[in-house]
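To the team - adenosine-5'-triphosphate complex, inputs and output below.
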Amino acid sequence: MEKMIEIKDVSKLYKAGKEMTKALDHVSLDVKKGEIIVILGPSGSGKTTLLNVTSGLDNITSGKILYEGNNIAKYSDHKKTSFRKKNLGFIFQTYNLLEHLNVYENVLVGSSLGKNNDNVTDIINTVGLEKHKHKYMHELSGGEQQRVSIARALAKRPKVMFCDEPTGALDEKTGKIVLETLIKINEEYQTTMVIVTHNPGIALIGDRIIKMNSGQIIEEIVNEKRTKPQDIPWG
Ligand SMILES: Nc1ncnc2c1ncn2[C@@H]1O[C@H](COP(=O)(O)OP(=O)(O)OP(=O)(O)O)[C@@H](O)[C@H]1O
Ligand SMILES: [Mg+2]
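Output:
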């Protein structure tokens, strides 16, 4: 498979007053096109930092972040932002949806950020929200809101979806529906996915499991056969 992202010897230092935190310590990782990577690790191990620097949301201290060969770490902030808007989708633990817009309008916001001409209705159907199209966010369950945020991210057909604890706020049943939605998108559009989680069961839905500790990758496990979200142990 072709390489989508190459993370090369990346370190990230945070300075807060006199305190220095080495959030990432010489991390290297290749992500292939269409691959689902799951990043596991204890709190504070650097998972979110890795996601943020890989997606260009945050700067690195040293190293390289290559997308199809281009080092985005060298891009200006402006160029980085437009690269992100065009190519990357984000899903967070909290859904960051616009409360005063309905489902359709929230997804439309996503499509206008990118260059995708897909029918917003098609995307809403893909995530299984056709019946809820005209509802406002407070009229939806947590799992439904998370699927709106997936649809919004998907509306621009991103090359890569970055998901930070996408089921962290959800119970098992709704969490598994959200994971099934992500798998379906990966299968339909070959979207590359990087999923950060505390939940070791979720690791089984992907192709590769990356374990982090103290800012380093301590283990990389190839998962030969993806497990269906319905069949994974929860927590
Ligand atoms: N903006 C920041 N300023 C200073 N230190 C930071 C900042 N963001 C993260 N850190 C530190 O970097 C380290 C890694 O944090 P990170 O958020 O990547 O961990 P994590 O693995 O995502 O944890 P969690 O599972 O709790 O979300 C931690 O020690 C954290 O305190
Ligand atoms: Mg985190």
